[in-house]
Amino acid sequence: MLYSTVAVRRHALLRTTGYDLGIFEQAVRAYAELRAPVAPLRGEGFNLLGDHFHPLVAVLAPLYRLWSSPLLLLVAQSALLALAVVPLARWALRVLGRRSAHAVAAGYGLSWGIASAAAFDFHEVALAVPLLAFALEALGRRRWGAAVAWSAPLLLVKEDLGVTLAAVGGYIALKGPRRLGLVTAAAGLIGSAVEIKLLLPAFNPGGGYAHGGNLADGYGSLLSTLAHAPLDVLRPDVKAMTLVLVFAPSALLALRSPLALIAAPTLAWRMVSENGFHWGTSFHYSAILMPVVFAGLVDVLARRRRRGGPDAARDVRASLATVLTVTVVMLPSFPLAQLAQRATWRTTPHIEAARALLERIPDGATVAASNRLAPQLTSRCTVVVFPTFPVAGELYRYDRERLPPPTAEWIVYDREAPESWPYKPGHWPYPVEQQEAELAAAEKVHGYRVVARRDGVTLLHRRGG
Q1: What's the rounded Cα separation, in Å, for the pair 390 and 210?
Q2: Are strands 366-369 and 410-414 parallel, antiparallel or unpaired?
Q3: 194 CA to centre of own chain
Q4: Cβ 301 vs Cβ 100: under 8 Å
Q5: Residue 429 class from Cβ within 10 Å (0-12 exposed, 13-18 middle, 19+ buried)?
Q6: DSSP string covering 41-99, please?
Q7: 25 with 360: CB under 8 angstroms?
């Protein structure tokens, strides 16, 4: 309920985005209509399986047929993130007792990594969070086959998660049946390699891996890049801070568990990435790490309890009290705190004006919309971002002098830059001056007429567009 309230309220306040909620809704809508997951927001004719490999997103299609709305994705994501608490709390109940299980559940449920994911659009990684949580519980209970069964679908969630499957296999090889572990590790590595080298380029219009540039040879050669990697993991300073904050919800105790190694693949690619968004605590990137952190916590405390002694129970209670204290201290700095902010519950005249103009766009129309208006329309229209982005289906190609002319029937543009956590306030994908220039050109050069203007929102239409 907490996650859904934050997510749905953000959508009502026009804080969700075409990039990424609108894109994923277009893909799920296509699946629901038994079409390939083509997302016009991502590029003309762009099959989203050429962006990230996440065919498991299609499991939401039957639900979308029943409720064709972006809210379906937001509520489903909230449920998936919450579901992961079941195996973690159940394991804690089994080995630590009822009060400890409540503490673990509260720590996970209020953790910043989960809150950040719940409060930023929809992402495929939400499917991986409960899968990994159930797999970690199985590892903790030495149910090796079940652990593999729960973690194997990670290959269908995102291309990098095959390496996380390999880490699960490595843990099994060390602690359980060696052959099963090695086969699982090999399957994970081969699966990720096949997806990155073969499947993603096959679906991508450009014939390559769309996000390969994030791991480019930053020092001119792969060898030099690898040599600098140990230092680059800790610089700039935000990386070191993130590494500490990832394990902080467990009072750093999870670092004493070998299960913490399962977080290594995700942390590694994020820290060596050249995309600064990957380094910090915003967005959805840390959601997959929270089950690992709390599984590690349960593992450490369970071993401490098994050792017995007069101080064992007291140490467990003190550790969990520290976990809850850290959780409470960090809570105001992350998105669940938005529920206590007055602005979250206030619908401004600007929002009312935007909604009134959006209602004038008929179902089935083609629309070029500002990024934060796009997901308000993707359930009933064909939507691209205004001004046209990406150019020719290429991500982050900012050729401002040769933007193609708009072809949509409608243009709806919002001049106001709303509060937009986790982004800084501002206009995207181009500065406001260029967006205004493109809007003027649509009216003066490309034959659009102004239908209405209200409170900074402009609606244009072109017959036969």
Answers
A1: 12
A2: parallel
A3: 23
A4: yes
A5: middle
A6: TTSTT-BGGGTS--GGGGGGHHHHHHS-SHHHHHHHHHHHHHHTHHHHHHHHHHHH-HH
A7: no
Whose CA is closest to 91, among 250, 302, 327? Answer: 302
Buried b (16+ CB within 10 A) or exposed e, 10-30: bbbbbbbbbbbbbbbbbbbbb
Instruction: In whole angstroms, give the CA distance from residue 6 to residue 21.
Output: 15
Per-residue model confidence as pLDDT tens digits over 38-84: 999 998 889 999 999 999 999 999 999 999 999 999 999 999 999 99
Kindly tell me the burial class for residue 70, based on how many C-beta atoms sit within 10 Å of its own C-beta (0-12, 13-18, 19 or more): buried
Pairing of strands 382-385, 366-369: parallel
Q: How far is CA 88 from CA 135, 266, 297, in A?
A: 10, 20, 10
Q: Quote the Cα angle for 296-306-251, to 5°.
A: 35
> Which burial class, exposed, middle or buried, applies to 54 when counting CB atoms under 10 A from its CB (0-12, 13-18, 19+)?
buried
Per-residue confidence (pLDDT) for residue 220, from 0 to 100: 54
Q: In what order do the strands lie in the sheet with 382-385?
A: 382-385, 366-369, 410-414, 457-461, 449-454
- CA atoms in the 13 A half-sphere facing the CB of 150: 20
Task: Give me 212's structure tokens.
Answer: 């390969």
Length of the chain (residues): 465
Question: Regarding beta strands 457-461 and 410-414, do their DSSP bridges make them parallel or antiparallel, or are they unpaired?
Answer: antiparallel
Give the span between the Cα atoms of 116 and 221, in whole angstroms: 35
Average pLDDT for the chain: 91
pLDDT tens-digit series, residues 335-393? 999 999 998 999 999 999 999 999 999 999 999 999 999 999 999 999 999 988 876 66
Contact status, residue 117 vs residue 335, Cβ threshold 8 Å: no
Residues 181-239: tens digit of each pLDDT: 999 999 999 999 999 999 999 998 888 887 776 665 555 554 555 555 566 666 678 99
Extract the tokens encoding 321.
């009290």
CA distance 160 to 391: 26
Q: Is the pTM of this model over 0.90?
A: yes
Strand-pair partners of 459: 412, 452
Q: How far apart are CA 263 and CA 142, in angstroms?
A: 19
Cβ pair 412, 357 in contact under 8 A: yes
Cα→Cα distances 441→8, 150, 405, 446, 449, Å: 35, 53, 9, 7, 11
